[in-house]
């Protein structure tokens, strides 16, 4: 049952050192690209990293950004953020990371005339950006579910994106593309307790 698979999936942050075979990673990408996307634009690409140097580029950028934020915070929040943002670094425990990247599809915004009001143009750009982000997000969920299905563990992380621009520079992400998340993948070395969910009646409103 697909619901059971969805409910059993957990965010895994501790991994065995063994590296999953490329064929398994490609299965995850196959699941990713089965996701729907607006106008079937498939506004995604997937960077797969397993070399130490790529992990280091990301880890250095994230840690630098963390330290910068810590220095900006007032002293009473510093240790709280320092502890919390340790979770931005746990991708380092994984043997493989997948970085889904996406780009906004310029649909209506490319068609409207120059005189189009700035505010409306800004709205359209945000709308087009969000539409692409939604597509890649659905692809990410497919990766997480497929991981569960084939015995891998995964964790979708946006914490590292506090250093998004630096990560994109370091990994030579093509212009116009944006990293959506860092997905840690590997054989799970933990089975986290389900953190629970809000009850259906709390999150549902029949109109
Ligand atoms: C958009 C998004 C961003 C997340 N970012 C992080 C992160 O930066 N670090 C982390 O350890 N977990 C991250 N998570 C995992 C969540 O903490 C996790 O999904 C949540 O606690 C529920 O646990 P479960 O996935 O096991 O059901 C993220 C999840 C999502 C969907």
Secondary structure layout plus pairing:
Layout: H1 2-8, H2 22-33, E1 44-49, H3 52-72, H4 75-84, E2 96-102, H5 108-111, H6 118-149, E3 153-157, H7 164-170, E4 178-179, E5 182-186, H8 200-203
Antiparallel strand pairs: 1-2, 2-4, 2-5, 3-5
Residues 10-11, 13, 87-88, 90, 155-159, 192, 195 line the site of flavin mononucleotide.
Descriptive report:
The protein has one domain: 3-Layer(aba) Sandwich (NADH Oxidase), CATH 3.40.109.10. The two termini are 29 Å apart. The chain has helices at 2-8, 22-33, 52-72, 75-84, 108-111, 118-149, 164-170, 200-203; strands spanning 44-49, 96-102, 153-157, 178-179, 182-186. Helix 2 packs across helix 6 (118-149), helix 3 runs antiparallel to helix 4 and helix 3 (52-72) packs antiparallel against helix 7. With 207 residues, it is an alpha+beta fold. The mean pLDDT is 96. Strands 1, 2, 3, 4 and 5 form a 5-stranded antiparallel beta sheet that branches. It contains 8 helices and 5 strands; from the N terminus they run ααβααβααβαββα. The structure holds flavin mononucleotide. Flavin mononucleotide (FMN) is lined by residues 10-11, 13, 87-88, 90, 155-159, 192, 195.
Note the main attributes of this structure:
single chain; 207 residues; alpha+beta; NADH Oxidase; five-stranded antiparallel beta sheet; 8 helices; globular; binds flavin mononucleotide
